[in-house]
Amino acid sequence: MTRPPTTATGALRPDVLNARRIVVKVGSSSLTTAVGGLDSDRVDALVDVLARTRAAGTEIVLVSSGAIAAGLAPLGLAERPQDLAGQQAAACVGQGLLVARYTASFARYGLRVGQVLLTADDIGRRAQYRNAYRALTKVLSMGAVPIVNENDTVATSEIRFGDNDRLAALVSHLVRADLLVLLSDIDGLYDGDPRRPGAQRLKDIRGQQDLVGVELGDAGSSGVGTGGMKTKVEAARIATGAGVPVVLTAARHAADALAGRETGTLFHRTGDRNSDHLLWLEHASSPRGTVQLTADAVQALMQGRGALPATGVTRVAGQFVAGDPVELLDEEGRVVARGLASIAFQELSLLRGRSGREVVHQDDLVLLPAAARGGLPSQLRREVSVRVLPAREFAARDAGGPGFG
Fold first, then answer.
1. Pairing state of beta strands 246-250 and 265-267?
2. How many helices (H) and strands (E) does the chain have?
3. 199 vs 253, which has greater pLDDT?
4. Coil, helix or strand for 358?
5. What pLDDT, on a 0 to 100 scale, did the predictor assign at position 302?
6. Which residues contact 273 (CB under 8 A, 6 or more apart)?
7. Side-chain half-sphere exposure of 253, counting CA atoms within 13 A
8. What is the structure's pLDDT at 274?
9. How many angstroms separate the Cα of 369 from the Cα of each of 66, 183, 298?
10. Which of 150, 149, 183, 43 is nearest to 102 (CA)?
11. Based on C-alpha coordinates, what's the Rg of the chain?
């Protein structure tokens, strides 16, 4: 298949036409029947589009939901379980069915697939992050199509992404994708509930200012997925902030989206492709504790004036060792940054307020966006909760892998 030339119509999107590696995420509601089983026709229709795109020379990484949903009917469940154990059981049955169906469908085009199951802990720890990068790039180099999903069978509440939209955004950066396509059952972002008369589809989002006044919904009515429009907008914010444009549209419009036609909503890139280290720290790390700072220390962070010394620390909470992610709070307890601790919590508790010892190196520090600090409407805020976990030694910072040194 040859992609449409850019001169054919002014409606084609250059960001899509020029993409040589694309991450495509599809939701559960786009793959399953009303009672929860896999819909073979829907799976085949999606694979038809992806295979044609792959034949045109573009690499595809598929992030697919649907494992839990696919396991509902075989287990005699009428709806998605609310308890974690029930979800894990459904995923255990459904994941095999999902990958088997993809394997058979892609085989019609002579394409092989490779299953990659991840948890937030896999991407949230350096060693696993590097391993995921190497595995995915190797699968791509060998001509296969990686199929990525959250490892629901073993994931706990502490190490879950919660939805595959955020996972897809992180994977798009991990594999150096040129584009992220989010496929759902709704054909784009609307300024209100699309079921209401007069709601308008937004064709282009160039920054957070274009989202002011936009109503964002939760998970859809199908009851088989966890994501909603809020999670998709958050995923788009992560990806575009890291230099990856995003197309959000309905699964039935996948062919148009991948051909560069003006379907759905295009989220334009808002930042440059930054260090994997910093993206991981901001979006995929699980903080092991908190460090509260003086007003002067916060101001120094905002102005980029070097490392954070212990003299600027007023309070330490949680149990962490050197190398663990911690959240940095202002005097009012608001999260302003995240960094990797240079010293353990026991020692920092003794040194706080009276030592020039480095607490966080400036290369291991990321200021959180306004969304995490309350600068946007509440429906767009990325709520960050601190979970205090037992101290664990972090992976050694050896060379190699995707941008970690």
1. antiparallel
2. 12, 14
3. 253
4. strand
5. 86
6. 173, 176, 242, 243, 244
7. 19
8. 63
9. 31, 26, 14
10. 43
11. 22
Chain-centroid distance of CA 127 in Å reads 18
Residue 389 and residue 288 in contact, taking contact as beta carbons nearer than 8 Å: yes
163 with 229: CB under 8 angstroms? no
pLDDT at 15: 93
Question: C-alpha angle 25/27/30, rounded to 5°?
Answer: 115
With CA atoms as reference, report the closest residue to 216 among 224, 30, 205.
205
**What CA–CA distance (Å, rounded) separates 106 from 89?**
26
Q: Which amino acid is at 148?
A: V
| Interval 225-266: pLDDT, tens | 444 788 899 899 989 988 999 999 999 999 999 999 999 999
The DSSP line for 244-300 is --EEEEEGGGHHHHHTT-S-SEEE---S----HHHHHHHHT----EEEEE-HHHHHH
- DSSP secondary structure code for residue 321 in this structure: -
Instruction: Output the CA–CA distances (angstroms, integers) from residue 246 to 1, 24, 263, in the order listed.
Output: 23, 10, 12
pTM of the model: 0.77
Maximal CA-CA distance, the chain? 68
130-183 tens-digit pLDDT: 888 899 999 999 999 999 988 766 655 544 555 789 889 989 988 999 999 999
pLDDT attached to residue 388: 27
Number of neighbouring beta carbons within 10 Å of residue 266: 25
Q: Which two tokens stand for residue 292?
A: 């509260």
Phi-psi region of 401 (alpha: psi -120 to 50; beta: other; left: phi over 0): left
